[in-house]
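Sequence design from tokenized structure. All designs in this work follow the same two-part layout: the structure record, then the generated sequence. An example of the structure record is given first.
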């Protein structure tokens, strides 16, 4: 076998492609040709190094001297960016809980400014109205977007737990009327139906068998593939 043909076949082998000549002939040539054997070893080492560089993302545009500051900032951004959303959610949640604790212990952070309407409870009434409207719209949307039911159920259950505590304590202190207590019934019902909706499926949802997700049937059998030898012309 000619060395050019052998090296072409070896190059295809390194790339994972089909060799143009039978692999047994190529191996026989390697055993008898030290030059091709040396070439194959060096080519294999270079191919392995290139794969490692590609996997680590070190292959980039060829230019002048790399900007170390830009590279450092880019590396820092790649490490931090996957956690930005989680960090933002946690920070916002902590801020909301902090405001709730501040109100619960009676810390004054602008709640009693008469010229803003807070002394008469007007702004607090508006906040309650906005919250009730948001929960009502989200509950209606749940009827058409069943996938939001688990998240809405989580919010409503926690809200109802705190609301129930304050209703009982305020009722014992004579700070709430029976009519106001009854006005909280819809949100309690919304919590119940959101839990129910999150645990059920819509009537027209496909069954697990129709989607191929039936656990009892076990994993799907892999499609049969007939492997052929590299020497086979039909491979």
């Amino acid at each position: 076998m000619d060395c050019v043909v052998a090296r072409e076949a070896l190059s295809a082998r390194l790339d994972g492609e089909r060799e143009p000549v039978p692999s047994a002939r190529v191996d026989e040539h390697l055993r008898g040709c030290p030059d091709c054997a040396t070439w194959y070893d060096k080519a294999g080492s270079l191919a392995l190094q290139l794969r490692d560089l590609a996997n680590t993302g070190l292959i980039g545009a060829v230019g002048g001297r790399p900007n170390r500051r830009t590279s450092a900032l880019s590396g820092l951004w790649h490490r931090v960016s996957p956690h930005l959303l989680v960090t933002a959610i946690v920070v916002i949640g902590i801020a909301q809980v902090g405001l709730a604790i501040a109100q619960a212990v009676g810390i004054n952070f602008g709640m009693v400014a008469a010229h803003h309407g807070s002394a008469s409870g007007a702004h607090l009434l508006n906040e309650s109205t906005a919250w009730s409207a948001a929960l009502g719209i989200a509950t209606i949307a749940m009827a058409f977007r069943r996938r939001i039911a688990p998240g809405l159920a989580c919010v409503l259950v926690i809200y109802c737990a705190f609301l129930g505590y304050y209703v009982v304590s305020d009722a014992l202190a004579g700070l709430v009327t029976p009519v106001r207590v009854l006005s909280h019934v819809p949100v309690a019902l919304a919590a119940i139906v959101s839990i129910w909706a999150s645990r059920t499926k819509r009537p027209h949802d496909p069954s697990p068998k129709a989607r191929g997700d039936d656990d009892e049937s076990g994993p799907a059998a892999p499609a049969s593939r007939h492997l052929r030898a590299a020497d086979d012309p039909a491979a």
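The chain has three domains: 3-59, 90-116, 121-206. We note this feature because it recurs in several other targets discussed in the main text.
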